[in-house]
Predict the structure.
Amino acid sequence: MNHRRSPEPLLWMLFSSGGMVAALMLPILLFLFGVAFPLDWLTPPTHAHLFAVLRNPLTRLVLFGLSALALFHWAHRFRYTLYDGLQLKRYAVPIVVFCYGGAVVGSVIAAALLLTL
Amino acid sequence: MTVYERPVHLLWWLERRSYLLFVLRELSSVFVAWTVVYLLLLVNAVSDGPASYQRFLDRSGEWWMVAINVIAMLFLLLHVVTWFGLAPRAMVVKARGRRVPPRQIVAAHYFAWLVLSAIVAWLVLR
Amino acid sequence: MADEITLEVARFRPGEDTEPVLQSYQVPLREQWAVLDGLSYIKDHLDGTLSFRWSCRMGICGSCGMTVNGDPQLSCATFLTDYAPGPIRIEPLHNFPVIRDLVVDIGDFMDKLPTVKPWLVRDVHSPLEEGEYLQTPEELEDYQQYSMCINCMLCYSACPVYALDQDFVGPAAIALAQRYNLDSRDEGADERLAVLSSPEGIWSCTFVGECSAACPKGVDPAGAIQRYKLTAATQAIKGLLMPRSRR
């Protein structure tokens, strides 16, 4: 049994680092932009301010890393949820393509958006 | 030899509370992905100019969008609690030859969470 | 306190039954009686045809694992009074083929266990005259919890991943592999890597955590598996970056 070329270790690394950054960073971002500003608990920043923050290369780098890793976190977890939760392991190939393919496409879109800002 | 093999129910995770909690924890990843999509829509709107940003703010105030985001927020918190809670079992940290107690590892995660959240909030709101 | 309690015991007679049927028995409800004592009472006084496994009656042999009211338990360490007024449902361990009544076929676990080499592996054994391999209390602490495993298989019974995929190496075998990997006297980690880091090894585990909740000896197989994932992933990535440095 030789599985040294298995992609699982790499995928798991992406999954777990994604889970960590998602836990650390996403709640505050969703709280501000998805809950607090829409419900008028806090005043949303002006366009000029947000644009300036997003233009900073460090912000863009962090946002790209956060988006890509969080998407790979989703891909890996959702893949196993479909395998075990819905017993769909026999459709492993389309599931893998959908999950990790989705994460790759999402990461490319994130990179494009952040680079053309 | 005839043996009996118990069939696994398709929705086996409804049979035990702990299994259900596990599946909800795994489903939190869907809301992690949703949050990324939502933030990228925000970046796109900011990138397109003030009018587009205003449209994003208006749409984010619609009741169904708020409903989605409140549910997503609850799942993100479930992710935070379960992720930090399980962290000390997946990692063994040693300091000066001694194992750092699990509680301290969990506490360190929450501390980092608070600090990072404060930095993000300060950057956005200042 | 009532002086009797009802035990609903799953009966499966191969060749006669197509699936287990519950049969009720009244047994004395005594404070110091475990579920196993109730079953022994049935066997001795009510129905000699009931089959179940047991040996030590003190939570160390690992042979009396059963499903008690839906939870995997050692029947010698589960007391009748905790379930009063009853009834108590006693079924064979889940996730294993049932041979008869409460007896399950444990062949799958027995086949898997040696594949992870749960013993001390040395490249070169030092001569006997040099004495024992010494170990500090800290080194002992690294693996001690995993050495408490009694191979009772409650963790396999609790594991939904094993229920769905019988190829999964499973909680106890991986925890026992870690018991030796983390032992300062052992040099077999490389030999265990192939089986443990195969898709049927650690990567199938989704950290449901029920194996650790079920363990009667306080072992944390789920934690052991996640720790090993980190080790295996670090090694794999090192191997990718420095392909020649592997020994």
Remarks:
- Helices of chain A lie at 8-36, 47-55, 57-85, 92-115.
- Chain A has one domain: 9-115.
- The radius of gyration of chain A is 17 Å.
